Amino acid sequence: MNAIDFSPLFRTAIGFDRLARLMDTARTGADAGGYPPYNIEKTSDDSYVLTMAVAGFAEADLDITAHQNT
């Protein structure tokens, strides 16, 4: 567990709040993408394969809808 807290930088370093926010974001991984993780593979000029990691879900729990040109 990581116990580093950059929040005091927000109070004491006026003008450096953006830098402190960037450091805190890098530490927590807030920009690390969304859930669920996925890969998009281009298999031909107009064909793609979407692979999603949905551990803990059964096939019956998933609903897939494809919209053309979106």
List the helices and strands and how they pair.
Blueprint: H1 7-12, H2 17-28, E1 38-44, E2 47-52
Antiparallel strand pairs: 1-2
Describe this structure in words.
By secondary structure, the protein is of the alpha+beta class. It is 26% helix and 19% strand. It is built from two helices and two strands, in the order H-H-E-E. It has helices at 7-12, 17-28; strands at 38-44, 47-52. A two-stranded antiparallel ribbon has the order 1-2. Strand 1 (38-44) and strand 2 (47-52) form a beta hairpin. The model has no long low-confidence stretch (mean pLDDT 78).
Give a brief description:
The chain is an alpha+beta fold and 70 residues long.
Q: What is the succession of H and E elements?
A: HHEE
Number of strands: 2
Distance between the termini: 41 Å
Radius of gyration: 20 Å
Which stretches are low in confidence, meaning pLDDT under 50 for 5 or more residues running? none
Strand order of the largest sheet: 1-2
Number of helices: 2
Strand content of the residues, in percent?
15-25%
Based on Cα principal axes, name the global outline: elongated
Q: What would you call the structural class?
A: alpha+beta
Overall mean confidence score, pLDDT: 78
**Largest sheet composition:** 2 strands, antiparallel
